[in-house]
Amino acid sequence: MIHLACCCSTSSAIRSTQPLRSSSYLSTFLSTRHRFLSSPQIRRASAATATKPASVEGSIYPPEPELPQLLPADHLRLDRQRNIGVSAHIDSGKTTLTERVLFYTGRIREIHEVRGRDQVGAKMDSMELEREKGITIQSAATYCDWEASPALGGPKKSYSINIIDTPGHVDFTIEVERALRVLDGAILVLCAVAGVQSQTITVDRQMKRYNVPRISFVNKMDRAGANPYRIINQIRQKLRVPAAAVQIPIGVEDEFKGVVDLVRMKAIYNQGPKGIDVVESDTIPADLVELAQQKRLELIEQLAEVDDEIADLFLSEAEITLPTLVAAIRRSTVACKFTPVFVGSAIKNTGIQPLLDGVCEYLPTPSEAPVKAIDISRPSEGTGANEVPLVPAAKAPMVALAFKLEEGRFGQLTYIRMYQGSLRKGQVIWNVRTDRKVKIPRLVRMHSNDMEDIEEIGPGEICAIFGVDCASGDTFTDGTTQYSMTSMYVPEPVVSLAIKPAGTETPHFGRALARFQREDPTFRVHIDNESKETIISGMGELHLEIYVERMKREYNTPCITGKPRVAYRETITQRADYHYTHKKQTGGAGQFGRVVGYIEPFELDAETGKDREYVDKVRGGTVPEQYIPAVEKGFLDAMEKGTLIGAPITGVRFVLQDGLAHVVDSSELAFRLAGLGAFRDAYTRAAAVIMEPIMLVEVVAPIEFQGVVIGGLNQRKATIVDTEIRDDEFTVSCEIPLSDMFGYSGQLRGMTQGKGEFSMEYKTHLPVLPNIQREMVEAYKKKIGQKS
Ligand SMILES: Nc1nc2c(ncn2[C@@H]2O[C@H](COP(=O)(O)OP(=O)(O)OP(=O)(O)O)[C@@H](O)[C@H]2O)c(=O)[nH]1
Ligand SMILES: [Mg+2]
């Protein structure tokens, strides 16, 4: 039996994929035209054809699609197009940097600071809460045009750049995830003092997951203790990314006033109000000439490590010309083998324009960022044979991915990335997952929270459609293809809390929760069957706190919340067989369903988030076909709540092999209950364990507190992973169960006279210790016993 997880956006979409059974659909498929063929038909057909022997291949499948060609006009357009994300650890200056970019490119007239004295706030932090707290909560998209100075000289060239400014706080990591999923390149911002921090490491992982090339920007060069070379070493060592400076600072801290471009060996200064005038000079300050030469050589050496052409020239001591050097930096950056490092200070308006030139020079065009879709009309049996490269040609059949939703008062705003073909306002397009046609009533470009209407958009662009109902992760086509983009990684929630409206419950309560859940796949809501409480879960206390606050502000629904609790999971560690009969005879029609099979551990797929699988191995119709999905429903019901402590279950494969039905007494309900009962029965023999979230914690504090801080962490069952001492500060990285982290911020403050800082991110779920499991199970039994 074959499962096609074809057009899944999130793990829940994957879970709902039904097994495909009959080969009789083949005739339906063959007699239906491919254009606007309904996707269930196609899916069934693919399943059916996939089970056919290879010898008949070629005769019955749809012809392999011809790849669209990029025309000269496409190249002209794409060469001047960049889609970039700005990502980094919290507070490194992403929004401040983006504000400068918008100012220098003429998109905004005034610069407003994050938490500035004028109380206006930066353009990209448009939400009231973002402005109040001075942090980015949601990623925001914008676009601008930049007249870039080419490294090889000559007249300026005009580029259009789509930018997504992402939040740094780990609780909003899904915002980074979905931005990087659709962007071609990124600016990794680092603080010139703090360097690589815990979130930098997370963002680095996310960039690697989606193969996003990056240039690095060492910001805050005006701060005391700024040192770009230390940061470059950290990029090499902690992120394991070959890196080298392409600029060195002219002056540091208070004296920072410009950069030396090591590629062209020129000094670049910002002058005039807000650093608007870029002044270039061939004269490098005398005290920097030697350092510049040394760092230029280091750049070439680093490139020689990753690029054969430079390696050959370097070894033969041949001259490396400017065009060769620029081409090598670009080639190795685009190939994700190297990151060029720029320096600057966003707040002091220094070094931003050269960074923008770097974006245009070294980050990929949309045609250089290879993207594949799955042609779900073609069989592959997991071989990947139905993967099709998408080509950003304007005349190609349209393919776009919905990567983010926002629900406003006037309808849903859906951010899309155009991968292939063009889209016009009023056009009818196809949602591959739902198999529905939709008309695009409004097409807009986003400028943070402002929408700017457009008539048409081409491939390689980012825009938004207004008033279209769909889910995040849906693929749209023009109906001539059945291409589906793969899903993105959605981390598991780690904290949950009970919530209820402070006053009487109004429809606003449910409406708000439904909206937040639709917009944010890391925010989940469920009702606890025993306590009847509404439980919300998310990525951290701040994440949930923000939603509770938004309920009050945006829905006029102040809420009362319970204490944050760790979001535990249950899973099994060994296979267990089941032979289970659900039977009930109560006067009228009875209920009968027998199922036979086994459950076994299923490894989580980190890429797709898929954590469960239902496998139908029934032969000879012992369980009638119409009841097979009912058994799966029973299995999914059982997964919602484990019997150890009532936590959701993950990581199980449920295999149905055999069974028995009764002509009169069998029904869907009977088989659903049989599936549920069988699972619960086998669960008791499958060595089930409770899993808890383990967090990666990084603490930075003055060196004199090292002893107490490490002592405190050990008390909390930390596994120390790394410690680093730098000047008069130390950094310790460790892994700690989340349940041992509550109250840590207060303790750290107390231990370090308020000078210590820590950050925390979700790493994984791991089993709790056996004695703790016993205690938890006992406590749960008691709780249930008291209630019943
Ligand atoms: N000294 C100095 N401070 C800066 C610089 N750039 C930004 N800041 C300050 O750093 C703080 C954080 O800036 P943001 O731009 O909000 O940082 P962010 O990376 O967008 O933060 P999140 O989105 O919340 O992760 C603000 O107080 C800025 O004024 C800089 O170049 N030098
Ligand atoms: Mg920000």
Structure notes:
- Pathway: Protein biosynthesis; polypeptide chain elongation.
- The chain has 788 residues and is α+β, with helices and mostly antiparallel strands.
- It folds into five domains: 289 residues, Rossmann fold, CATH 3.40.50.300; 114 residues, Translation factors (Elongation Factor Tu (Ef-tu), domain 3), CATH 2.40.30.10; 73 residues, 2-Layer Sandwich (Alpha-Beta Plaits), CATH 3.30.70; 118 residues, Ribosomal Protein S5, domain 2, CATH 3.30.230.10; 81 residues, Alpha-Beta Plaits, CATH 3.30.70.240.
- The chain is 29% helix and 29% strand.
- The chain has 20 helices and 38 strands.
- The chain has an eight-stranded antiparallel beta sheet with strand order 18-17-23-14-15-22-19-20.
- A hairpin with a 2-residue loop joins strand 19 and strand 20.
- It starts with 10 loop residues before the first helix and ends with a helix.
- The relative contact order is 0.09.
- The N terminus is likely disordered.
- The protein binds guanosine-5'-triphosphate and magnesium ion.
- Magnesium ion binds next to helix 5.
